[in-house]
Amino acid sequence: MKSVNKQIPVLKNVISSVLPQAVNILINFVLPPLIIASFGSATNGLVSTIKQVVAYVTLVGAGISTAATQALYEPIANKDAVRVSGMIRSIDRMFSHVGYVYLAIVAILAMIYPAMINSSLPYLSTSLLIVVMSVSGASDFFVAGKYRTLLYADRRMYVQSLIQAAGLLVGLLGAILLIKLGANIVLVQLAIASLYLVRILGMHIYIKKKIPQYIQKNVPYVDEAVSKRKDALLHHFTGLAVAG
Questions:
Q1: What's the CA gap between 78 and 72, in Å, rounded?
Q2: What are the helix (H) ranges across 1-134?
Q3: What's the sign of the alpha-carbon dihedral 29, 124, 135, 57?
Q4: Which of 96-123 are b and which e, b meaning 16 or more Cβ less than 10 Å from the residue's Cβ?
Q5: Contact in structure between 191 and 178 (CB atoms under 8 Å)
Q6: DSSP assignment, residue 15?
């Protein structure tokens, strides 16, 4: 019976991990044609390009989550709440430090990139589009990263997956509604980006209710959680090179 009970969270994690991917497929199937029909293929191409560029910028934080998750396994297994809380504080601090670098790169990108391309959108609109589409990365570095890492280390990936899938779906519905109402592309992307904040709130509420002992504030930092980031970073980029 115990072995069956242990398998249940694993099955939850595996099954729920498919949901965000399925919603993403739905988004890629539905949203681009609507954007092309309403704003033109050039704007759709610009949105796709900015999405890829922002994804590359988020690589400044590569390795943090992997190293932190691995470091958290042992203290969580031992139910050492004070040590876990100290690690989470260190993880949060590291994410924030990298987040400032991310914001600086995005700010430079928002100033330079619109002047480098031949876009049908005005300079300011393109710049705002970059900023708006960077909200997800910023929210990940400054808030969501520590929550996601804790959920992964505690074998609760299904929580993050379900919240992510729900957020993506609601964001898609909001984007469709705004397009139908004639909103501009910046507002459409802002509606999608705002759902990241709802996802953060969902994770925060869940953790505060289910495992509040792991996010104590008045505990010392435990830097062991991020001490092996360089090794994880090397592994991450090696994997990307092999996959490419």
A1: 10
A2: 2-39, 41-57, 64-77, 81-116, 123-133
A3: positive
A4: eebbeebbebbeebbeebbeeeebebee
A5: yes
A6: H
With tokens 């919603």, the residue in question is 23
pTM of the model: 0.85
In the chain, the N- to C-terminal Cα span, in Å, equals 43
- Mean of all residue pLDDT scores within the chain: 85
The amino acid at residue 208 is: K
How far is 151 from 41, CA to CA, in rounded Å? 39
Structure token digits, residue 113? 């990139």
Length of the chain: 244
Q: State pLDDT tens for residues 209-238.
A: 999 999 999 999 988 767 665 554 544 444
Which DSSP string do the residues of 133-196 spell out, in sequence order?
Answer: HTHHHHHIIIIIHHHHHHHHHTT-HHHHHHHHHHHHHHHHHHHHHHHHTT--HHHHHHHHHHHH
